[in-house]
């Protein structure tokens, strides 16, 4: 006969602790949280990066539905005039830009996070009022507050500049190196001095040359920003 111990070992152990689900409110669970009401995700309301020294920043501004196409000549001229009117105000300097149908990409240089906030607020109000006068309407012009990304390394800066100057190829096709008339890459020296600002930080003036890869269309920069002839040649697409 088998002992009681051996019989017990042959019986599969099917006893398990059952989870007791208690009703609760809030907390991490499927379907929890505020539901999205906009067609696309909104800019996060988390605190922006803080900085006390001048630094380059990539900024995106998106207009609300119903605002005219920004790539029309009349709207683009207004945006240009606003760049000229806000030039070097509040410690914010617009270095490069690209105007798309319903949004703008900017590479700016700000003296601090407070200068970035005040400068972008002033520029946004200036553009909104001018576009509303053109469209003979009232109401908000921008769909959300601006999105910003602090650029802290040469590679990040070069990637951002290439993204802005070649953004038309992403939306409309063609080569990124092609000159877009609604982009600062098409500016000559006179127009650049009228609408844009000169950078002051080491990263924008010289440090960007230390990026791991520099795309060919970076040569479209003005003469003061082109790589020196003695500098090594970098080629290759951005990843």
Helix/strand layout:
Elements: H1 4-10, E1 55-62, H2 73-85, E2 92-99, E3 103-110, H3 113-135, E4 147-150, H4 154-165, H5 167-172, H6 189-195, H7 202-205
Antiparallel strand pairs: 1-3, 1-4, 2-3
Helix pairs in contact: 2-3
Give an overview of the whole structure.
- The protein has about 240 residues and is an alpha+beta fold.
- It has a single domain, classed as Alpha-Beta Plaits, CATH 3.30.70.
- Helix content is about 30%, strand content about 10%.
- It has 7 helices and 4 strands; from the N terminus they run αβαββαβαααα.
- The protein has a 4-stranded antiparallel β-sheet.
- Helix 2 packs antiparallel against helix 3.
- The longest helix has 23 residues, at about 115-135.
Short synopsis of the structure:
This protein is an alpha+beta fold. It has helices spanning 4-10, 73-85, 113-135, 154-165, 167-172, 189-195, 202-205; strands spanning 55-62, 92-99, 103-110, 147-150. The protein has 7 helices and 4 strands.
Characterize the main sheet. Answer: 4 strands, antiparallel
β-strand amount: 5-15%
Helix content percent band: 25-40%
Q: What number of domains? A: 1
CATH superfamily: Transposase IS200-like
Main sheet: strand order: 2-3-1-4
* Distance between the first and last residues' Cα: 74 Å
User: Which spans have pLDDT < 50 for at least 5 consecutive residues?
Assistant: 222-239
Whole-number mean pLDDT: 80
**Contiguous helical run count:** 7
Please trace the helix and strand order, writing H or E for each element: HEHEEHEHHHH
User: Globular, elongated, flat, extended or rod-shaped: what is the shape?
Assistant: globular
Nearest-angstrom radius of gyration? Answer: 26 Å
Give the name of the CATH architecture: 2-Layer Sandwich
């Amino acid at each position: 006969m088998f002992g009681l111990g051996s019989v017990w070992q042959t019986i599969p152990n099917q006893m398990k602790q059952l989870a007791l689900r208690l009703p609760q409110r809030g907390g991490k669970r499927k379907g929890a949280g505020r539901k999205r009401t906009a067609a696309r995700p909104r800019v996060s309301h988390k605190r922006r990066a803080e900085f006390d020294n001048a630094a380059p920043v990539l900024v995106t501004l998106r207009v609300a539905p119903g605002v005219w196409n920004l790539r029309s000549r009349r709207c683009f001229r207004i945006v240009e005039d606003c760049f000229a009117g806000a030039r070097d105000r509040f410690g914010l300097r617009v270095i490069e830009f690209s105007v798309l149908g319903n949004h703008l990409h900017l590479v700016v240089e700000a003296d601090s996070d407070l200068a970035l906030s005040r400068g972008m607020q002033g520029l946004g109000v200036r553009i909104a009022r001018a576009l509303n006068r053109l469209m003979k309407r009232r109401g908000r012009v921008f769909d959300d507050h601006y999105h910003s990304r602090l650029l802290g390394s040469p590679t990040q800066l070069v990637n951002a500049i290439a993204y802005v100057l070649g953004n038309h190829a992403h939306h409309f096709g063609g080569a990124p190196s092609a000159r877009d008339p609604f982009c600062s890459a098409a500016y000559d020296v006179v127009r650049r001095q009228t609408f844009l600002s000169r950078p002051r930080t080491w990263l924008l003036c010289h440090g960007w040359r230390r990026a791991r890869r520099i795309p060919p269309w970076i040569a479209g920069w003005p003469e003061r920003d082109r790589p020196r002839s003695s500098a090594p040649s970098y080629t290759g697409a951005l990843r």
